[in-house]
Amino acid sequence: MRRVQWFEIHDCPWCPARWRVYLQDMLSFFASAFRPYDAIADRLGEALVRSGAGRIVDLCSGAGAPAMAVQRALREHGLAIPLVLTDKYPHPDAGWERSGTGSGDLKVMEKPVDATAVPADLKGFRTLFTAFHHFTPAQARGILADATERGQGIGIFEYTERNWLVWGPALLLTPFVVWIATPLLRPVSLGRYLWTYLVPVVPFMAVWDGLVSCLRTYSPAELEVLTASLDPSGYRWAIGRVRAFGGCRVTYCLGWPERAA
Fold first, then answer.
1. Contacts of 22 (CB under 8 A, 6+ apart)
2. What domains can you pick out in the chain, each with its CATH number?
3. What single-letter DSSP state applies at residue 81?
4. What's the confidence (pLDDT) of residue 261?
């Protein structure tokens, strides 16, 4: 299926901040409950060691659950590494799972950080979990090019894909999952219940943005094309897919400076 660049509601500047937060909280719940990215922890760990990076700089973090889950998985693999959470629209409760991550190994950037214009002084192995599909091919190439030009490692990870056998049934069930999971989310707020049950904006956003995420997700072949267009000198790439939970597969694109390999 051809990739399409439709819009996601929570990406739009006009999207109310509270709607964005409620959707991010739901995505964080999913990432914490199912930990889909544990499947790539070993590959990411290897790239981190080869790059010599001293920390992970996570871009487009939302509430940060995917990156924090992977940080825990890396620790279980014997690699303890600090994590910095960043986002263009910082989540007010980013890092809410701080407890248990260890003192000093988690930092939350309160100022906005645009993944297409990462500050030069924000050094570390860059990661994007379920976020790379938000960017057009030109933007996506720019993100990869900036990492290579600055000599920083980068990891792209997506559990969505253009596969209706996997995601068709999941999208149909999404509203029910949102309704069932909402009472488990924290903090409890009247607004969350209002926009989930009385006026079902959050379930609608979850379905629409989930559908568009699948349609926009880059395939391994498309990631190969993007990386092939970059200067190949001094950089190494690893691209592929691994199976996670159920029928879900994680597409990954890992790059690191070859001189550090």
1. 191, 192, 195, 196, 202
2. 34-163+214-260 (3.40.50.150)
3. -
4. 42
